[in-house]
Specification:
three-stranded antiparallel sheet, alpha/beta, 388 residues, eleven-stranded mixed sheet, globular, Enolase-like, domain 1
């Protein structure tokens, strides 16, 4: 389909009351940017990013238009490569990711398929974990996770204080309170190597599921050292802004069983799929960051369902803080996995349907969006999941 226009629009956002951003990339209220690609056939693609700097919007739109206008959306691999060359590592990869997601969105719409099936479905459901915002006290984390466990989550990740001694106390309190769930911790690259080693040894004793971003993702030697000393698997790479090109560093040395990705730094859907398959060849998982607006989350989910080597979908808790009031997300309390099919995901909220009233997955939806409509939380016995 012939591309006729590319637009990037800044959206006004408000941070939900009581929501404390995590450390690192989202320390402050993010600026949401709507990326849209239009075609001559009247099928448009959309994506919303919270990582495109507002000052970069005009330049990113000009670059994207220069490359994309007049081209065919089905040439997405070639277009992704050209955008990667035009927007080299460490410049503005979120703009690349947004436009790439729009192309996949358009093509899946034209095929009348949810994106994960257009990519080639590996499964129709995936386990979800509760992922906290930051809190000033241990009680804040405990209260949030008590509510999440009551809703059906059997795994959880915290974004801790970012201070080794306090984070050790937090980890101990979490394991004492939740002895039977899988626990993860993500200090967002806050530690030195010695501090990370101290925290990691405690996590080993507490049987944590993974240790995410303990130190800078650019410190490959430090990550390899930590991996050699700890039994808790490291989850690394999310904060490396070089995209697909950076993957070689994590595959060429033992730095962790879980390679972590943030789509807007990874280069969009095209490069995420390449990265996932490369990790699978090395026996590594490819775990996907899942904070952000609706279209952002939906893209992550569709990719996760199209690859074999991803254990989880990440769901921010409390859910009232999800995507900074851009959408609200409601899940069925007894759900153990996140499912697509039991509820309808629309642009401004996820509405829960009773499973008995579930829409057939092959039924046409008048305002169907293959990214959003293919990702619908729902109910199943025992675990919280997403199903398509």
């Amino acid at each position: 389909m012939k591309i006729t226009d590319v637009t990037l629009s800044i959206l006004r956002t408000e941070l939900g009351e009581g929501v404390i951003p995590t450390r690192g990339a989202v320390d402050k209220l993010p600026q949401l940017v709507l990326v849209s690609v239009s075609t001559a056939e009247g099928i448009d693609g959309h994506y919303i990013s919270y990582l495109i700097p507002s000052k970069a919007v005009q330049h990113a739109a000009e670059v994207a238009k220069t490359i994309l206008v007049g081209r065919d959306t089905y040439d997405v691999a070639a277009l992704n490569h050209e955008m990667t060359t035009a927007l080299p590592p460490y410049s503005n990869p979120p703009a690349l990711a947004g436009t790439d997601a729009c192309l996949w969105d358009i093509n899946a719409k034209a095929a009348n398929l949810p994106l994960y099936k257009y990519l080639g479905a590996h499964r129709h459901e995936i386990r979800a974990y509760a992922s906290t915002v930051a809190y000033p006290t241990i009680d804040g984390y405990l209260d949030t996770l008590r509510a999440a466990v009551a809703e059906g989550f059997t795994a959880a990740k915290v974004h801790p204080f970012g201070e080794a001694a306090r984070d050790i106390e937090l980890a101990k309190a979490l394991r004492a309170e939740f002895p039977h769930i899988d626990l993860m911790i993500d200090p967002v690259c806050a530690y030195t190597v010695p501090d990370a080693l101290a925290v990691g040894r405690v996590l080993d004793d507490l049987n944590f599921y993974w240790f995410e971003n303990p130190i800078s993702d650019q410190d490959l030697d430090g990550l390899a050292f930590l991996a050699s000393k700890l039994s808790t698997p490291l989850s690394v790479g999310e904060q490396n802004f070089a995209g697909f090109a950076a993957l070689r560093g994590y595959l060429s040395r033992p730095s962790g069983f879980y390679v972590r990705t943030l789509a807007e730094y990874a280069g969009g859907i095209t490069q995420m799929m390449k990265s996932a398959h490369a990790c699978e060849a090395f026996g590594l998982n490819y775990e996907i960051h899942s904070y952000g607006p609706t279209l952002n989350l939906a893209m992550y989910l569709n990719v996760a369902l199209a690859i074999r080597n991803c254990d989880f979908a990440e769901i921010m808790v409390p859910q009232k803080g999800q995507v900074f009031h851009f959408v609200s997300v409601d899940f069925v309390a007894e759900a153990g996995l996140l499912r697509s099919g039991d509820v309808t995901l629309v642009v401004d909220r996820w509405k829960v349907r009773h499973p008995d009233a579930q829409r057939n997955a092959s039924e046409s939806i008048p305002t169907r969006h293959p990214i959003t409509d293919s990702c619908r939380p729902g109910a199943d016995s025992g675990r919280r999941n997403i199903r398509c």
